[in-house]
Amino acid sequence: MEKRYYQKEIETMPLSEIRAMQSEKLVKQVQHVWDNCPPYRKMMEEKGVTPADIKGIEDLHKLPFVTKSDLRDTYPYGMLAVPLSDCVRIQSTSGTTGKRVIAYYTQKDIDLWEECCARAIMAVGGTKEDVVQVCYGYGLFTGGPGLNGGSHRVGSLTLPMSSGNTERQIQFMMDLRSTILCCTPSYAAYIGEALKEMGYKPEDNALKAGIFGAEPWTEEMRRDIEKSLGIKAYDIYGLTETSGPGVSFECEEQKGMHINEDHFLAEIIDPETGEVLPEGSRGELVFTSLDKEAFPLLRYRTRDICVLDRTPCSCGRTHVRMSKPMGRSDDMMIIRGVNVFPSQIETVLLNEGYAPNYQIVVDRANNNDTLDVYVELSPEQFTDTVSGVTAREKALAAALRTMLGIGAVVHLVAPKTIARSEGKAVRVIDKRKLHD
Amino acid sequence: MAIKQLTVFVENRQGALVEITDLFAANHVDMRALSIADTQDFGILRVIVNDTDEALRILRTRGHLMQATDVIAVKISDAPGKLSAALHALNVGGVNVEYLYAFLARTARHAYVVLRVADNAAATAILEEAGFHMVAEEDIKKL
After folding, report:
1. Residue-wise over A48-81: b if at least 16 C-beta within 10 A, else e?
2. Which residues of chain B from 109 to 128 reach within 8 Å of chain A, CB to CB?
3. Which of A144, B66, B130, B131 has the fewest CB atoms within 10 Å, measured from its CB?
4. Of A113, A146, A142, A112, nearest to A132 (Cα)?
């Protein structure tokens, strides 16, 4: 693939220049929040830090952390750092883990966000000749508006499909010859299944690439999607709190997502102690937004566990790469005292030849945690004898025990009985929380 | 002389089976024989119908998990000891029966036994050798 960049000078900037740029921006940003955002000023005062203490990125560790609950507590206007009349848009989190967070944008904030998405689209080979089908939700969710804006900036023909109505998605995909698909990975997998059911082969569509994010997915799921749609599947990462998708994105190497370091300063910390860990360590990802005007973040704890990789990338981009989040420090389940991540269960299912359609139910019976995994059986896996089906259940339960270190009860269910997501998939139901 | 059996995965929840039988009823699929194997989690419905292809098509459009399985059917006089005689023949011939189910004909004094074995041809030969009449797919449809 020919190397293409949306902003080559920035995307391939030598590390020393990136560092200098980050330092300069950080000093200004700290002054900005000190002057204009009372909750930040209060947090800094409590820690005994003033803008004079921050002379560059080497002083970043002196600043306090900001968490999602800080953002929730100041709902709706508390974290606003510019006059409301300077804002042109809001977006909002889905509220899946509690009260919503509202993010504010000035026109400059929107511009920078869309540029980040444009970089992501060009990194997967997008040009003005492409037809970009955006089936992330439009509205408060950042997925649709973000990729829509990025696609406009690249000059591609943008199909603002939003999520859902799979039949219509497929009709437009086929009739308008979409070349780049943007949606959640679970919806991409769903579209792949629907195409197969309608009798289409992977080569029947014109798609060449997909930009899939907003929920965790595994390498196995990537291979499945690539096969079913006949494309290359790329990851994209972002949070409503930082702007939306495009904080980082994969290039043609598909080996981690380049963080747009001119806008976002990344750190990895120990989630327990808050201590900054050296690059290359596994820990919680923390972001400082260097350019955001309306809703700036200083040392925002994402709860995503990942690793940063500074080794040179053949794509020419110099910006650091982050791994796929390996779990969230807050969606790890503790079952019978053992740490379990849904991604581990997904890996086993895909290794054993099941589709990534599953639901995990955790409950407590007789003071003992129970783990039930519901998995859809495919037509090829179904046999006419009870022993055939139960043998599959047993084999899967054994593989899960090997991976997790604890036993799980496997339930094979009919296809399409586990609710499919057109937004975020509900993979885990923890009934134990109801008893607290 | 294999005949087609329809095998359908049935979830263990109220109403799961009636959904399938309603589909058959609405599309005039007539059932000749039926059996269900059940476990705590799921059931497996095995059914022989007058139009297997149509039944498969209907179930597929509704997203049911199913397959067409080759089984054999043997005609047996409706008298004590006749099923035993057929099973003895298979046993002596070294044929293991995976599962079976039986149904009675409406008029003649006959029973029909549907058998699932690993080797249909071998089992058929053994039963015919022992004097039993196998039932062809067309015969089942005519019943």
Report:
1. ebebeebeebeebeebbbbebebbbebeeeebbb
2. 116
3. B131
4. A146
Tokens of A46: 């409590």
A198 membership: H or E segment, kind and range = none
Residue B40 contacts A, CB cutoff 8 Å: no
Domain B3-69 in CATH 3.30.2130.10? The answer is yes
Determine the angle formed by the axes of helices A166-175 and A185-197, rounding to 10 degrees.
Answer: 80
Q: Check if the interface score ipTM surpasses 0.85.
A: no
- Closest CB to B11: pick one of A378, A382, A414: A414
Judged by a CB distance cut-off of 8 A, whether residue B66 touches chain A is: yes
**Closest chain B residue to the Cα of A381, Cα to Cα:** B65
Q: Is the pLDDT of residue A65 over 70?
A: yes
| B39 inside 8 A of chain A by CB | yes
Contact between B67 and A417 using a beta-carbon 8 Å cutoff? no
Give the nearest partner residue to A384 out of B7, B41, B42, using CB atoms: B7
Cross-chain residue pair B44–A377, CB shorter than 8 Å: no
Q: Look up the domain containing A356 and give its range.
A: 333-435
Average pLDDT score over chain B: 89
Neighbouring C-alpha atoms within 13 Å toward the C-beta of B118: 4
Name the CATH code of domain B70-142 (choices 3.40.220.10, 3.30.70.260, 3.40.710.10, 3.30.420.300). 3.30.70.260
Residues of A in contact with B65 (CB under 8 A): 377-379, 382, 414-415
Nearest Cα of chain A lies from the Cα of B65 at a distance, in angstroms, of: 6
For A354-412, the pLDDT digits (tens) are 887 889 999 888 778 899 999 988 888 888 888 888 899 999 999 999 888 889 999 98
Please state the pTM of the whole predicted model: 0.66
